Amino acid sequence: MDEELRDVFARHEHLTPDAAPVRRAIDGAARRRRTRRNALRSGAAALAVAAIAVVPAVVSRTHTPPARAGLLGEAGRTGPVSAPAATADAAALDILVVGTDDTPDRAKAGDLTRADAILVVHVTPTRDRVYVAPIPRDTVVRIPPSEGNGYPGGEDRINAAFAYGAMKGGGREGGMRLLSQTVAELTGLRFDGVAVVDFAGLANLVEGLGGVDLCVDGRTESVHIRGKVYPPGCHHFAGWEALDFVRQRKGLPDGDYTRQRHIQQLFAAIADRIRTVGGAKAAGLVSSLGPAQIVDGNGRSVAAWALMLRTVTTPVLLRVPGHPKSGAGYQGEELDPLADDLFAAIRAGTVEEFLVAHPELRQPA
Amino acid sequence: MTFEEFAEARLTALLRYAVMLTGDPHLAQDIVQDTMVRVQLKWRRVVRADAPEAYVRRMLTRVYLDWRRGSWWQRVILRGAPDDQPVRGDHAEASAERDAMWELLSRLPRSQRACLVLRYYEGLSDGEAAEVLGCAATTVRAHISRALATLRGQLVPVGGVR
User: Fold this and answer.
1) What residue numbers bound the domain in which A72 lies?
2) d(CA B48, CA A344)
3) Sorting pLDDT into bands at 50, 70 and 90, what band is A363?
């Protein structure tokens, strides 16, 4: 009987269908499913802001972008912050950079704002190295209570922190304060500065810089602009194209992780472009962004920031490893234990050593 | 390993396994497609598993066993009876008995058939089969002995009494 069973199975191997059409069907179905899932996972995605690229450009004293205090709340680094710029302290700097999809009009209308691009930027004490670590927007975290508007705190995806802080009159400042505190709790970091830019601000910044050069690894199709496709290879991007490109997640091989990489690439490209066009032009641009950009220097003036960061070179892009939470359906991301080790290395100022041990966390530029 | 590399290397083997489970090329295609779409969407988790292929085989087996809940079963109902794929002529006569066996296999409960496929086609030990099915090795042995008893009782020998 054993032999007969082996035989009967082997004899029917010829029923096996050809793999190629199955392969095409799988790809098509996965694309459709992913589109649906992304539609559920909060519609319009994010964009990045390049505060670290913007700030060093602001060397002109006549152009001062709106600087507001109080965005950091308890997430701000305490200690002497009034040191003159020229004697900038030799400690590392940590900056929180956030991209939102709101516009001044939407904010006035009271629409909920999503903060989908969340970048932790770490500058070494020698001010020559910058590391950029994106927090996955779907990371499920504990969100602390928001004093301003009575939000009691709870567990949710990190991009909801901004909305919880902003609702009931909290505004962008309230949103940013709660998001800063949430990221501070997640990473154990205290921030020296925070910057926020919205859609229009980012597109205008890139446009004003004369566009940026970006290298596309995989064919990316726009779900927001019909028929717009970004083919693989290095291309020049206009402002609206750069914004559209970093908003795409649909069909990307690693979903939001690939999008985070695109955001980091844009960040680096903006920094590069600012160095090319020079500080004076960039400074004019930043001031023209107006309310599209808000900054809290935690007590330092923009000029002080500019002096501190003038020696910074091309950013090193990091990957914060995570995985989908287990359970039925998609319930957001959970960071890997390695992510905590990465945050610890940032706190300890040993990122370079950490990357030697974990080269997989370094993103290709 | 990327999903593309995995699909390139393992898709045919998975389809063969699915044919053995379902006995039908169309059903095999359906459950493999269903499984692989899920695999692609959670590829990062799959690739972190010790053995991605075993992980995918477990998923595929689960889709097959979740007969009523799975969407592929509804497609079967809509399509009607599975196509009657004629067996190729050259072996047909000599294999009449084994074709009867193939027919009998399709009447076994799915978990019993899965055990037979894992032991006699995939060549797994009872322990390995148990892991694929998410049950105990003793359960696998019980399924197999029950399946063999059914087959022995129903198989009408073509060439006289055995």
Assistant:
1) 19-361
2) 24
3) confident
- C-beta atoms of B19 and A10 within 8 A: no
> Per mean pLDDT, which range of B11-20, B115-124, B147-156 is the poorest?
B147-156
Q: What is the CATH number of the domain that holds A62?
A: 3.40.630.190
Q: How many domains does chain A have?
A: 1
Contact criterion met (CB below 8 Å) for A162 and A178: yes
Residue A14 lies in a domain: no
Mean pLDDT in residue range A61-84: 46
Q: Given the structure tokens 């892991």, which residue do they identify?
A: B131
B interface residues, A as partner, C-beta within 8 Å: 2-3, 7, 11-12, 15-16, 19-20, 23-26, 28-29, 32-33, 36-37, 40-42, 44-45, 48, 85, 88, 91, 95, 97-99, 101-102, 105, 116-117, 120-121, 148, 151-152
Q: Which residue has the higher pLDDT, A298 or A217?
A: A217
By Cβ distance, the residue of A13, A26, A37 closest to B36 is: A26
Q: Which of B11, B91, B148 minimises the CB distance to A11? A: B91
pLDDT in tens, B21-33: 998 888 888 889 8
Gap between the Cα atoms of B162 and B158, Å rounded: 10
Q: Which pLDDT tens digit goes with each residue over A275-296? A: 676 655 665 666 566 555 555 5
Q: Which of residues 230-259 of A touch B (CB under 8 A)?
A: 253-254, 257
In a domain, A278, yes or no: yes
Task: Identify the pLDDT of residue B97.
Answer: 58
Kindly report the nearest CA distance between residue A325 and chain B, in angstroms: 10
Model pTM score = 0.53
Query: Residue A237's closest CA among A284, A281, A272, A189?
Result: A272
For chains A and B, count residue pairs whose Cβ atoms are closer than 8 Å.
91
- Give domain status of residue A88, yes or no: yes
